[in-house]
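User: I've been trying to design a sequence by hand for this structure and keep getting stuck. Would you show me what you'd pick, starting by listing the structure so we're on the same page?

Assistant: Good idea, let's start from the same input. This is the structure you sent:
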């Protein structure tokens, strides 16, 4: 038994020991607490992958992906400025999109304009596809070519043609997916008039697009599943008919969700429960968007969430916005502008910030790319932005 004095001393010793241990725990945990606090802060920065080097130099229609090694690769089409025919170019980032390496050529077919690239990551393989036409394009025939790299974009195979039963296989500026069962999937679609033959569409505004996905085991031989189409009132004469340029994401439950370009004031959406072979009837989504494509990504750290980047406007191709959904695209967070053009003409074809792609770096931050037309209309640049989930959801 302790005496009263001893009990008092014992309590003081225990109290001191507890305070010491608490301070020690706090000291040891401090770096981790600070790191967590830093990670929760809203973060945003942006820059340029490739700017025009002279008048008429046009860099457009980019798409971005993360390789199996964690590097980022973006590919796009370059035309104008003394280049006879457009070609597919690329660049790799080794630091999660902060800086971008040398520009390199991927597809450049003699006598063809190679444009609208798509990209697919299949393990260590990077597959880049082009939509190639004989200039001048009369909207009757598109050829699809693929080049493959197995060393993070250092070297590329000679492009080979991808055969298709469709005359005008459109909408190939996309990020393909490797589904949970290992099937390779690429969004796509075709123009109905070119397929029927006879009188072709003279402009995009006369095209009639039917969309869906293509499935493959090797990335070269594809089986199409195209059924997504609507007859809807356009709001501008240059808007396409039907539905085109689908962006597709595989949700956590295995369902596929797609957002599609339309000539109305809204993007359309549809869902598939069998890996893209059949789809629900397309309906207007909650997102405004006229005659533009979106890009979708499922979050690495929160696989129940998806992020979209698109032109949040019923008429124009600006601003460029992002939003997050936690319920498979049924509802979206308040749009946050990544880029905008102010003080310009009203309609999208005058000036635009458009054709975005999005992925995540290994650090968890989102990395987006897009095509930005210069104010003097003498060229287009490929821009990038890096930001985190906290920034997207911040007020």
């Amino acid at each position: 038994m302790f005496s009263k004095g001893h009990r008092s001393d014992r309590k003081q010793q225990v109290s001191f020991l507890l305070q010491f241990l608490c301070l020690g725990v706090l000291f040891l945990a401090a770096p981790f607490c600070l790191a967590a606090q830093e990670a929760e802060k809203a973060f945003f920065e942006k820059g340029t992958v490739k700017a025009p080097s002279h008048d008429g130099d046009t860099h457009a229609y980019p798409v971005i992906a993360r390789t199996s090694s964690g590097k980022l690769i973006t590919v796009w089409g370059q035309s104008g400025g003394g280049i006879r025919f457009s070609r597919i170019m690329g660049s790799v980032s080794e630091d999660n999109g902060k800086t971008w390496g040398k520009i390199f050529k991927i597809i450049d077919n003699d006598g063809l304009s190679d444009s609208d690239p798509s990209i697919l990551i299949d393990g260590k393989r990077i597959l880049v596809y082009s939509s190639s036409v004989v200039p001048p394009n009369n909207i009757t025939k598109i050829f699809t070519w693929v080049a493959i790299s197995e060393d993070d974009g250092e070297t590329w195979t000679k492009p080979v043609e991808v055969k298709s039963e469709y005359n005008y296989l459109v909408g190939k500026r996309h990020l393909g997916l490797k589904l949970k069962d290992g099937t390779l999937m690429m969004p796509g679609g075709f123009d109905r008039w070119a397929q029927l033959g006879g009188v072709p569409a003279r402009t995009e505004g006369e095209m009639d697009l039917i969309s869906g996905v293509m499935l493959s085991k090797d990335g070269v031989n594809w089986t199409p599943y195209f059924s997504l189409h609507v007859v809807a009132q356009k709001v501008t004469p240059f808007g396409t008919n039907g539905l085109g340029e689908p962006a597709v994401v595989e949700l956590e439950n295995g369902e596929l969700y797609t957002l599609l370009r339309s000539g109305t004031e809204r993007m359309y959406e549809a869902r598939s429960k069998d890996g893209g072979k059949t789809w629900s009837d397309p309906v207007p989504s909650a997102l405004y968007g006229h005659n533009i494509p979106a890009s979708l990504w499922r979050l690495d750290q929160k696989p129940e969430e998806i992020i979209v980047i698109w032109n949040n406007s019923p008429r124009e191709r600006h601003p460029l916005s992002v939003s997050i959904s936690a319920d498979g695209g049924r509802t979206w967070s308040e749009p946050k502008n990544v880029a905008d053009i102010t003080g310009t003409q009203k309609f999208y074809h005058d000036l635009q910030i458009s054709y975005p792609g999005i992925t995540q770096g290994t650090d968890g931050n989102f990395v987006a790319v897009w095509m930005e037309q210069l104010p003097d209309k003498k060229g287009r640049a490929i821009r990038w932005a890096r930001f985190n989930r906290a920034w997207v959801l911040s007020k």
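That's my pick for every position. To get oriented when you compare it with your attempt: Residues 45-393 form a domain with the Neuraminidase fold (CATH 2.120.10.10). The CA atoms of residues 296 and 308 lie 5 Å apart.
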